[in-house]
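> call design_seq(struct)
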């Protein structure tokens, strides 16, 4: 081996050693980058939850109304009795002391005691949560599946009659307020209009007095109109995002190669195009899940559904400050948690994110 062939060895013997390139390659940097990415997202979520906690305390104290007078039920009570009520619920304390007490208890899971129900807020939320999850979960599965299915079909037949009809219908329904559509469905299918008889209940979750399978059918009967309302309003966004992402993929070289190998058009779409186009849709799915839980207030109020949304409306009319604050925190936390999960999962689907 000659010196000319090994200049690096000669330089190493004539002078001080020069540090070579790092042994940590791209894969090693990727392994360390993702934990930092996760830590940053979790830290941001914690800060957001703390901001929501602070905001919920001050925001709802701007609502006009005296909760103590509501608790008396309109009866004539003495000033001493009113003072006792205020002392019982801590309303006689200075604002800063109420705030520190609220934050301290909230960090331990104690969201206070409801003024109107005289029960812990967390118990009322736990009681109503399954009803909301039943409504939102059913609607979420349906509008996600419907949006992805129609979105992929529309993109694959871009410009066709079905594509134009589906896109136009999705945009129209997505722009309709959910409470207005719910009221319209009640008028047409619950009350009845012209030749259309009243087929569904006007509200509530059950008729009462039924057990077993008859009870399940009764709840499903009450569930149809609110679920249809949520699905009609929400599926359009999933459809449009899926369609747009798939259109971006359709001109890719790997799809041309797959067709050149003789694969059927249906297999090219299902095995190659759709999995890559679903990355933005996956993010949207998590965001929609949190947003649906928080945005179900109007639908539950219109259909008198006994969930978190109806409970929030009932508490807001008092105002029942501890219950309103607790529900607001739950709604905001659902959005924050789902957004954070989307941020954490996306790099696993697309390694370019978070590096």
């Amino acid at each position: 081996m000659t010196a000319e062939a090994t200049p690096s060895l000669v330089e190493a013997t004539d002078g001080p050693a020069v540090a070579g390139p790092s042994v940590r390659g791209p894969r090693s940097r990727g392994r360390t980058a993702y934990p930092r990415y996760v830590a940053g997202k979790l830290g941001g979520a914690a800060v957001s939850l703390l901001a929501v906690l602070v905001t919920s305390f001050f925001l709802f104290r701007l609502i006009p109304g005296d909760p103590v007078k509501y608790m008396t039920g309109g009866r004539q009570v003495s000033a001493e009795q009113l003072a006792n009520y205020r002392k019982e619920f801590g309303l006689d304390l200075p604002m800063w002391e109420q705030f520190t007490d609220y934050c301290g208890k909230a960090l331990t899971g104690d969201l206070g005691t409801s003024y109107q129900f005289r029960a812990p807020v967390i118990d009322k939320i736990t009681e109503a949560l399954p009803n909301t999850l039943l409504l939102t979960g059913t609607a979420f599965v349906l509008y996600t599946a419907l949006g992805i299915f129609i979105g992929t079909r529309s993109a694959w037949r871009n410009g066709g009659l079905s594509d134009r009809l589906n896109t136009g219908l999705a945009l129209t329904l997505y722009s309709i307020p959910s409470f207005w559509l719910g009221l319209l469905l009640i008028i047409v299918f619950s009350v009845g209009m012209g030749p259309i008889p009243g087929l569904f209940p006007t509200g509530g979750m059950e008729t009462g007095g039924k057990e077993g399978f008859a009870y399940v059918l009764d709840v499903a009967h009450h569930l149809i109109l609110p679920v249809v309302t949520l699905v009609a309003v929400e599926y359009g966004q999933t459809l449009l995002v899926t369609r747009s992402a798939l259109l971006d993929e359709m001109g890719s070289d790997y799809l041309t190669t797959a067709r050149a190998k003789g694969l059927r058009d249906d297999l090219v779409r299902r095995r190659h195009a759709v999995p890559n186009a679903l990355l933005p849709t996956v993010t949207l799915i998590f965001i929609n899940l949190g947003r649906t839980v928080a945005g179900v207030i109007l639908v539950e109020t219109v259909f008198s559904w006994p969930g978190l949304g109806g409970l929030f409306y009932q508490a807001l009319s008092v105002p029942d400050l501890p219950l309103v604050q607790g529900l607001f925190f739950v709604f905001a936390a659902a959005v924050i948690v789902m957004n954070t999960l989307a941020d954490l999962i996306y790099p696993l689907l697309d390694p370019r994110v978070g590096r």
